[in-house]
Design a protein that fits this description.
The chain is an alpha+beta fold. The protein is built from six helices and 15 strands. It folds into two domains: about 170 residues, Rossmann fold; about 80 residues.
Length: about 260
């Protein structure tokens, strides 16, 4: 049975352990060698993530800081974290040389302990195992719609929303999905009530729409907070909030509220 995304994330966190000594030990075991991302690939990563002046990017394992500096050139705020003091000195010098030191900062810190809840974009060039250990935090701590862009390595069974490549180097992009799983009371434009039951696995949802005594299967896919639901003779585009769903202005006025 497919579990709701919140429960999946909680189980993943519990399975990974939570004590500081274990995290410190794990970080030492999973030390990432420094391999710089080519400059043209950095720009392609930022293009895929649509990084602009309104964004706050955090690069977990920033090395010499080239990704935060490039984001700063686009007007974004950025933070780079790493454990290598020498690389961080290079990163600071690069930020000053590019004239972005007012928007870009660097911190010597374990990436597992770095707060990420304010980020709109997370940049990664790590290793597959570290991506998987970070995945529960990305899903639960980042706001819905935040983007995660990774050079070379994916997120296991969390399929990317987009991908690209340059000179055989792969890039993956994910948009953190809103929480749509659960029971919803759905009101159509004519004021009639329906029950919508959804299960969720990352950005994919499925379930049933109970309407006038009939149970209709529905499927859907999230892109951040935007959800498209389809079924037999049924198609609906809604925005998913913390407690409700609603259609955008100019569309038939469907709305839903959580009932679980």
């Amino acid at each position: 049975m497919t579990m709701p995304i919140t429960r999946r994330a909680a189980l993943a966190i519990l399975a990974g352990g939570a004590s500081a000594p274990l995290f410190a030990q794990r970080r030492r075991e999973l030390e990432v060698p420094y391999v710089p991302t080519p400059e043209d690939l950095v720009e392609k990563m930022l293009d895929l993530a649509e990084v602009g002046a309104s964004d706050y990017l955090i690069d977990l394992g920033c090395g010499d800081g080239r990704i935060p500096v490039a984001a700063g050139r686009r007007g974004a705020r950025a933070l780079g974290v790493d454990l290598d003091g020498m690389r961080l000195q290079q990163a600071g010098a690069s930020a000053r040389s590019a004239g972005v030191q007012g928007r870009v900062s660097f911190r010597r810190q374990d990436l597992f302990e770095t707060p990420i809840y304010e980020a709109s974009v997370i940049a990664l060039y790590l290793l597959p195992g570290i991506n998987l250990r970070l995945r529960p935090r990305l899903l639960t701590e980042l706001p819905a719609g935040a983007r995660v862009v990774s050079h070379a390595f994916d997120m296991g069974d969390w399929e990317p929303d987009a991908r690209d490549e340059l000179d055989s180097r792969r890039i993956f992009l994910w948009r953190v999905p809103a929480i749509a799983g659960g029971s919803w009371e759905l009101t159509d434009p004519d004021g009639r009530m329906h029950l919508l039951e959804l299960e969720q696995l990352y950005q994919n949802v499925g379930g049933t729409l109970v309407s006038e005594g009939r149970s209709l299967p529905v499927t859907g896919r999230l892109s951040g907070r935007a959800l498209r639901l389809t079924g037999e003779g049924f198609a609906l585009n809604v925005e998913v909030g913390d407690a409700g769903m609603h259609t955008a202005a100019g569309q038939p006025a469907w709305a839903a509220r959580r009932v679980d």
